[in-house]
Amino acid sequence: MNLETILATVVADAVKTIYSLEIAAEQIQLQKTKKEFEGELTVVIFPFVKASRKSPEQTGQEIGEYLQKNNQLISSFNVIRGFLNLSISKSYWLETLNTIHTSKQFGITTPTADAELMMIEYSSPNTNKPLHLGHVRNNLLGHSIAEIQKANGWKVIKTNIVNDRGIHICKSMLAWKLFGNGETPESSGLKGDHLVGKYYVIFDKAFKAEIKEMIENGLSEEEAKKSAPLILAAQQMLLDWENNDPEVRHLWETMNAWVYAGFDVTYKQMGVDFDKIYYESETYLEGKTEVERGVDMGIFNQRTDGSVWADLTADGLDEKLLLRADGTSVYMTQDIGTAKLRYVDYPINKMVYVVGNEQNYHFQVLSILLDKLGFEWGKSLVHFSYGMVELPEGKMKSREGTVVDADDLMDEMIESARETSQELGKLDNCTAEEIERIVRMVGLGALKYFILKVDPRKSMTFNPKESIDFNGNTGPFIQYTHARIKSVLRKALEQGIDFTNLSDTQLTISDKENYLIQLITEFPGVVRLSGEEFSPALIANYIYDLVKEYNQFYHDFTILKEENQNLKQFRLVLSETTASIIKTGMLLLGIEVPERM
RNA sequence: GGUCUGGUAGCUCAGCUGGAUAGAGCAACGCCCUUCUAAGGCGAAGGUCAAGGGUUCGAAUCCCUUCCGGAUCACCA
Q: Residue A565 maps to which CATH number?
């Protein structure tokens, strides 16, 4: 039982005994004591004053006296206004630290054999352009959430649905066919995904030029958009693709292979991975079958032009297209097929989609459609809806060339990490390989932390002109603290100091040290909450708080030069435990921490 | 227009299941390396928590109204 539960129970007893007020332990308001007051935990007294019929101060005093008498954990208390501040005995903290220090995997719940299965879909790229900053947020969130859920005892399958087919893919294929002159990644030296993305942009430009010309020749914009030769050719290509035209299929396979080779590099650099990859080209037929079944069931309707629609007006939504008039499938069709196949492939207890909030409507509809189709899990899908990454000028737009490319961004971060460490001369006596490893860790750490420390539900701003910081509330700051602790621990080992265990739990320690232990004890709760809330930001902010406190301790106290051997040992144990939590926590964010930097 | 969502320091963000004097970082200013890594620490400065009303012993937090932003409502994905 943890400290707060114990205290809440005692407070409930106190209130019942003194004022005959029945209140469940969970209802007791217990919070961390503000720093400016004496004590570690605070009971809010206001809810009891009605029953006590006394002033908040007096009520607090009475409850405090009861607690001190009936629980030996409480060494002293004070009452300020309606707040009862409790001081917990130092030996409790020291013993707790000792337990944590000697336990493996503190805060982590390893999944058991019969644990429930959570499937988490993230990344989900289109194969017509390279990944940009928006995808980076998606990938980092998806990966981190998967790690966090594992640490909360879930079995997790990380999955990726690759949007490898569709009209957008045909656009880059068509442009390459028309204007590519046989260009390949090898011939151009371009990374495969970037090469294909180039032709997607070329298509768009040529398409716009056609429209402009047609408008000049008297057509309305709407007519021009529908009848421009390029768009008609792309639509024909999609039809040919669905009809298994060998030439189109061959081109498609070739260009997608280029893209996958490029994505592999990006994913590897980013440090994300998947247990199972689905491709839309392999699931969309299942979707079509389901839609047709829906038509037979009478829940979807086919119009005279052949297109198929779901009428969701009864659910307060609109009509939704499921199959085009030419019979080709759309995004929704594919998602229906993919969802069904996943439940066939795995015994899923919870399905989570990590997809931006611009698709809230899509997932609302998907859930309803699956439910209508008779899948009992349809309504239980979780759309983990995160906010967009915006530039100071607003949304990123690929056509206006304002997207921040994922590969470029990661490279830039690593380079500035290299520059900083050269300036500081910190890695002068490391091997080239070590430098490379550390510089990559730090550069990516800065990027990942920058993105993950923000509440995922909120949109966030990224200013490309101001490079991501390495000081203050940043990944490198945390990594640096870890490296600094490790350095001290290495020296302690060299000196043969034993800090495997605390030999004295009756030591007198400072408030700062005491508070650090208290923070350490909060880690499991933070891991649990971040899992429940799907928020890596909670872990990021917690680690930052811990590290900030530790740095103050590190500055104000000496460790290795402390003359009291037991105190020195305590500080080493405290430091090692802190380092271990930093490492575990950062790993839940997908961020590695170096031994030196 | 309908629906959803957001507005906290110059900037980027915490705090939001109601609790004490609203916190960090960056930027700008001033200090601290003969001492375990200064990517660090300390100090000072910076606020009408968009505005107004309501509920409450207590509101940045809950409710209503207004203002301002964003997303979405495609035979795009």
A: 1.10.730.10
> The CATH number of the domain where A35 resides is what?
3.30.1360.70
Looking at this predicted complex, what is its ipTM? 0.96
Q: CA quadruple A481, A483, A486, A490: dihedral positive or negative?
A: negative
Q: Which of A55, A88, A121 delimits the end of a domain? A: A88
The residue lying closest to nucleotide B77, measuring its CA against C1', is: A331
What would the pLDDT profile of A455-465 be if each residue is shown by its tens digit? Answer: 999 999 999 88
Give chain A residues 344-403 with Cβ within 7 A of strand B: 357-362, 388, 392, 394-395
Residue A13 covered by a domain = yes
Instruction: Determine the nucleotide nearest to A29 by Cα–C1' distance.
Output: B19
Q: How many domains is chain A built from?
A: 2
Q: How many CA atoms lie within 13 A of A394 on its CB side?
A: 3
Please tell me the predicted confidence (pLDDT) of residue A518: 96
Give the nucleotide at minimum CA-to-C1' distance from A334: B77
Q: Tokens for A528?
A: 């649990």
Out of A51, A72, A88, a domain closes at A88
Does the residue A572 lie in any domain?
yes
Looking at strand B, which nucleotides approach a protein CB closer than 7 A?
4-6, 11-16, 19-21, 24-27, 35-42, 57-58, 70-77
CA distance A61 to A83: 10
pLDDT tens, position by position, A480-535: 999 999 999 999 999 999 999 999 999 999 999 999 999 999 999 999 999 999 99
Residue type, A227: S
Give the domain range for residue A29.
3-88
pLDDT at site A466: 85
Residue A506 lies in a domain: yes
pLDDT tops 80 at residue A72: yes
Q: Position A92: which residue type?
A: Y
Q: Is the CB atom of residue A126 positioned under 7 angstroms from any atom of strand B?
A: yes
Q: Give the separation between CA A579 and CA A583, rounded to whole angstroms.
A: 6
